[in-house]
Amino acid sequence: MNWQPFEEGHTIGKTGNEGGEIIIDQEHIGGARLTLEQGCLRAPYAVTCGVYGWMVHTRFFADDETAQHSVDEMKTAISEILSLIPAEGDNDEGEKLGAVSDAVEAFTERFP
C-alpha cells in the first residue's frame, strides 16, 4: 500500500488528539492519515483517521488486538475511498464526487 510514517515517524511516542500516546501514525500519499493511540482519556485505545478534505473519524477500543486489527481494516477501506477521488478537471468529476461521499458514509457506518 501507499502508507508511510507520518512526519518520518517523529510523532511516535507523543500525545495524540485523544490524550494517549501515539503508537502508529501513518499517512497515505493519496491524502489520508491514520493514528493509533494507547492510554487515551476516554478508552484504552483510539484510532483516528481522516481523508483530507472529506472526513475525520475516531473509534475507541478496549484492547490492543482489536485496535490493531481495526487499523489494518480501516487502512484498506481508506485506500479504496482515495481511489474514488477524481482528479481536478475530470469530465465525470460531479458524479465521482457523489461516489466519494457515498463511500465516506459507508465507511463511517462500517466502522462506528
Structure, described:
This protein has 112 residues and is α+β, with helices and mostly antiparallel strands. The model has no long low-confidence stretch (mean pLDDT 95). Strand 4 and strand 5 form a beta hairpin. Strands 1-2-3-4-5 form a 5-stranded antiparallel beta sheet, with helices on one face. The two termini are 24 Å apart. The chain is globular and about 45 Å long. It is built from 2 helices and 5 strands, in the order E-E-E-E-E-H-H. Helix 1 runs antiparallel to helix 2. The longest helix has 21 residues. It has one domain.
Approximately how much beta-strand content do the residues carry?
Answer: 25-35%
SSE string, helices as H and strands as E? EEEEEHH
Number of domains: 1
Helical proportion?
25-40%
What overall form do the CA principal axes indicate?
globular
The biggest sheet amounts to: 5 strands, antiparallel
Tell me, rounded to a whole number, the average pLDDT: 95
Properties at a glance:
globular, 5-stranded antiparallel beta sheet, alpha+beta, 112 residues
Compose a concise summary of this entry:
The chain has 2 helices and 5 strands, in the order E-E-E-E-E-H-H. It is an alpha+beta fold and 112 residues long. The protein has one domain (3-110).
Mind sketching the topology for me?
Elements: E1 3-5, E2 21-28, E3 32-38, E4 45-51, E5 55-61, H1 64-84, H2 93-110
